[in-house]
Structures are given as C-alpha cells and as structure tokens.
Write a structure and sequence with these properties.
This protein is α/β, with parallel strands linked by helices. The chain contains eleven helices and twelve strands.
Length: about 300
C-alpha cells in the first residue's frame, strides 16, 4: 500500500502498522441465500486452529488488517464482510438467522474446523452469538469484543441513528474528511482512522464516492435484538474483552454478562480504550486476545 503521513513526521505511523497492513492476504467468496459473502484469510495452514474475525455495524473486514497478521502466527485467520457491508452483496432485508448462515458458510468455505474461535466486535459479536445458538456444534469458542447486553438498570447513552439518507461525495478527498466512527468517539491513532477510511470508500455510477455499507440496513434489519436467553443458552467457552472507557460496555455490563453466560467467563478491560477498542489500543488488544484464547481454548 502507499505510505502516507499527512505531513506529520514519519515516526507518527509506527513501523509495526505498515508491516501488518502490507502482509499478504487472500480473498474469496461464498454464496449464501443468493448473495456473495466475501472473506479474506491470512496464515492458511492445515495444522493451525481457525479464528474468524467479524466486524461491527457499517464496518468491514479491512478493519482487521492491522490485527490479523499478528494472530496468523498461531491461527488460520479469516475476516469476513457481513452482507450489506464491505465488499459483500446487499440484500433487500437482513436478519440474524441469515447472518448466522453467512458466518457458518464462511467457516466451511475457508476450511475452519469445528474448533474455530469466533471473535466478534459490537454488532458482529451479536450476530456471532446468534450463530453459536443456532449452530452450537459448529464453533469452538466465542470472544465478544465490546459486545453484549447491558444491565437492565443501566440506560443506553444517547447515540445518533445508524441509518439515513445515502451520502455521495464529489471526490475522495472530501469523503475522507467526513469519515467518522459510529458510535462517535475520539481516537488518538489518526493513521488507523485514515487507513480504514481509505478502504471504506467505493466509486459510484455517475461519478463520486460513497461508503461501503447499505444505508438502509438498520431500517430493514429484523430479529437482531439481543435477549438474555441468547447468552444463557450458550454452550461453548466464552470470553469478554472490552474498552475500560467504553460507553457501551461498562464493568456493570461485564458482570451482568458473566451472570447470564454459563460457566466461567473470563473478562479483560483494555485501559485507555473505548468502544472501538482495537483502534484505540491495537497492541494491547492483540495481547489480550492472545491471552483470552489460551484461557478458553
């Protein structure tokens, strides 16, 4: 990839980041319910356990580009684009059962064994939980990254709607300047935000640029609500990783999740990280994920 520094000293972008995102990966796809689901893989090897990375709402597999290579030393790592996001097809309607089928199909197509560890961030964790309940025999373990069900007495913070009118930008520079995390939060690692923004745009017919997600998705998504029974029914090892400063996943939420999920549920809070924890603290997240895999694997 082209290296950039936005006029900042080269040291502002650490070398480990460039080494990670320049690590080769392979892309492929699988058809699920008449839509192509795209996935990418690192470290393919028959003697490594599998790991599937699932992004959050309005995100895509390229969010894991600077995380996956470090994990590929020990795992056959796959990151997927849920339909309606990234390079996967759009649907007229979306639902949790279809997303669960996509997750299972990618595991099968990518050759991930039944011991695969599924790592889901935010909405991706919600859909991974649905998949683990619908297809309990297919997965080995589940790690939820700032994803879960808040304590019923803990109100949700005010957040802007995720849907709305489709936005088109006249040029790439204008679009990049408008990139924002959802839900909103600051992130000190500007180079990570720029990398993700650059890989989140697509040219559109007639000229201009748009983001790689279906603006209608939140409005036509069905059966995706989270319920206590979703977590109480889990019958595989589960771990929790969350941002210590997250507005969506507090220590109280963590305790609530541990009370719902059967068995021992290890949890770790990443210091100085918010909801987008692996953007805020990528190296700490990798270390925590590695340790969590050892604990629940």
């Amino acid at each position: 990839m082209a290296r950039w520094d936005r006029g900042e000293p080269a040291a502002a972008i650490p070398e480990w980041f460039f080494e990670a995102v320049e690590t080769p990966s392979e892309s492929a796809g699988v058809e699920v319910d008449e839509c192509d689901v795209v996935w990418r893989t690192w470290g393919r090897s028959g003697d490594k356990p599998g790991m599937l990375l699932i992004h959050g709402m309005n995100a895509h597999s390229r969010w894991w580009d600077f995380i996956a290579p470090a994990l590929a030393e020990d795992y056959h790592v796959v990151a997927m684009d849920l339909t309606g996001m990234g390079d996967s097809d759009y649907r007229y309607e979306y639902d949790a059962a279809t997303y669960a089928a996509e997750i299972t199909a990618v595991c099968d197509a990518a050759g991930l064994g039944h011991d695969v560890i599924v790592v889901g961030h935010s909405f991706g964790g919600n859909m991974a939980t649905k998949a683990a309940n619908l297809h309990p025999e297919r997965f080995g373990a589940l790690i939820l990254a700032d994803s879960g069900l808040r304590h019923p007495d803990e109100p949700l913070p005010d957040m802007p709607s995720m849907g709305g009118r489709a936005k088109a930008y006249p040029d790439k520079r204008t679009a990049l300047a408008r990139f924002r995390l959802q839900p909103p939060q600051p992130c000190a690692n500007a180079y990570i935000l720029e990398y993700i923004a650059r890989h989140s745009l697509m040219p559109i017919d007639g000229g201009g640029w748009a983001w790689k997600f279906d603006e209608d998705l939140p409005n036509v998504l069905k059966d995706a609500e989270r319920h206590p029974d979703d977590y109480a029914a889990l019958r595989l090892p589960v771990g929790l990783i969350y941002g210590a400063e997250s507005k969506l996943f507090s220590e109280r939420t963590c305790e609530h999740m541990q009370s719902l999920i059967p068995g021992d549920v290890p949890a770790v809070a990443i210091p100085d990280a918010q909801h987008h924890l692996f953007l805020d603290q990528p190296l700490a997240f990798i270390a925590a994920l590695r340790q969590m895999c050892r604990e629940i694997g």
